Amino acid sequence: MEYAKQEQHLNQLIVKLGDNPVNADLLYIEQRELWQSLAFSKAQVALWLASLPLANVGSNTQAQYKVTPDLTQHLLALLQQAGGRIPLAQVLKKLPAGITTSEQQIRKLAQQHAQLDIKGPLLVLVN
């Protein structure tokens, strides 16, 4: 598919979604040729759909798709495997594919979660 045709198809799709919203999985299946021409994965389709203005995706206020994995659960699993302590620098290297975050964001998450704590350069599991 050439660029102009892809753009036209996306614009038509946005209009269609305003009349009849669908979830990301169904959209990926229904428009497989378009997504393949754009080299979009299911996750990228979900992100594209989530980025549309609410007016374009109907009045459904509940998201029908999950884009990101639960980072807190991943951190807890990492800490359990590492014996309860792991350097923050290592945590950043062991994040799931597609997750980008910073040390500051992990520190903030640890402050907000009852089972996580920061001790110097370490992320610690609190019992």
Automatic annotation (TrEMBL):
What protein name does the entry list? Uncharacterized protein
